[in-house]
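Write out the 3D structure for:
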Amino acid sequence: MGEANYPADLKYHREHDWVRLEGDEAVFGITWFAQDALGEVVYFDAPDVGAAVVADDAYAELESVKAVSDVYAPLSGEVTAVNDAVSTSPGLVNSDPYGEGWLVRVRLSDPSQVDGLMDQAAYTQYLEGLS
């Protein structure tokens, strides 16, 4: 799992999700903090391609050896792809949360929602406030 890291090119949600913007689409995943808190991820209950996701609402579940946790959408839109690699190898969320462990790709319905997310500095400050 390595050391905690929070890439500067991503945006972050208070529920410990990250967003990588790619035009009018975004890739979602969970942060290093979230995967560390979960422990070993053993199952990904993914949404269907075409499903609508709403900012701040749960859109998927990750099950670990410790618990089942909801995954919250940082932005609203339509799921255009699901990472099948995580469905077959859920541990990718732990080993590479910002790369191979991404969860879904979403076509954004309201790109201005990005303004409500945190940058790297704000997110790390947010984490400090939790401890």
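The mean pLDDT is 96.
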